[in-house]
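re: ur question from yesterday

yeah so i grabbed the chain u mentioned. its 214 aa long if i counted rite. heres the sequnce exactly as i have it in my notes:
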Amino acid sequence: MKKVLFIFILFFGIQQSNAQKKIYISDSFEEISKDHKIIAILPFQTTLKLKSDDNSYSKTQIKELEQREGVAVQEALESYFLNRKRKKKLKIEFQDINTTNRMLAKAGITAEDMDIYAPQELCKVLKVDAIINGSLTSRIVLSKDVDTSFNLITFLKGKSDYGKIIIKLSTKNTGKLLWRYEKTINRKSGKNTKNIINRMMRIASRKFPYEEKK
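ran it thru and got these structure tokens back, copy pasting raw so excuse formatting
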């Protein structure tokens, strides 16, 4: 019985893993990105769908948490890319996120209304060649450490997923989508935002070709 259960979980886990990550890269990535020099990482648009029985947060507090979570993803991505740049020679630079956020604020662009601006408009405001932005939907606050232990009942009920994150890279001239990574977040993804970003980007970076050719 235990062996059958193990095989079932293994098979289901493989199926889930295949369904949980999707990477797209434009066929014209190399041509379009060849002159890129600097990229800005934007705060992510976040939607928190906390448990219905959790009345500990007011609507105002949830909005504040969403903004905080969006910046946490931005910080985690900056940390990942700067660390990767130290280890490998990348042909692009990343705009300091504090500079990015100040320029957005000066232009009156907030995380809530960022999606009404075309990528090329945001690139122009930030004076960069491309932007990395995206969205996070979660039913928990990921910037805090979460329980990553395996729970069979939760797993079998299909409630082991926390949410989904989508990361996009768009160019300045046409706003064309060059690269996109979508991943379901669950207990295996990591215990907090930085941990989750590091794990998922280690996979995604294989198809994030900004490295100098040797």
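noticed a couple things. The longest strand covers residues 161-171. also Residues 2-20, 145-158 have pLDDT under 50 and may be disordered.
anyway ttyl
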